[in-house]
Amino acid sequence: MSRKIGLLYLTRHNLRRKLFRSIVIVVAVAIVAVVLFPTTILGKSVSDSLEKGVARLGADLMVVAPGNTSKIASTLIAGNPSTFLMDGSVADEVAQVEGVEAVSPQLYFATLGSG
Fold first, then answer.
1. Is residue 20 very low, low, confident or very high in pLDDT (cuts 50, 70, 90)?
2. What is the DSSP string of 84-95?
């Protein structure tokens, strides 16, 4: 009686005969999967984060009271504390300008520890 040689028999026989090679291939594939999966997820996350950041930039415009330009520049760029006020009605005036989609008043406070 002859034995039927099928794909499953050949696969099993080859794996037993070349055990070291089979183990090395399985380990190599596992290492590639372990490295590639987090790298892909991290890359996608960074890409999404950059897209969201760019979308938020839009055409932002900051309105500052006359004489306070240098104060706001040092506050935004260097983080230096500063205090200045502007009338709240300015936000309403800016909102009335054609093409302005949203107006958001900002508060920048100097803390007690900042000097």
1. very high
2. ----THHHHHHH
Q: Are 81 and 114 in contact (CB under 8 A)?
A: yes
Mean pLDDT lowest among 2-6, 20-24, 65-69, 105-109: 105-109
Q: Which residues contact 82 (CB under 8 A, 6 or more apart)?
A: 71, 72, 74, 75, 108, 110
This model's pTM is above 0.70: no
Residue 96 lies in a domain: yes
Count how many domains the chain has: 2
Report whether 66 contacts 95 (CB < 8 A). no
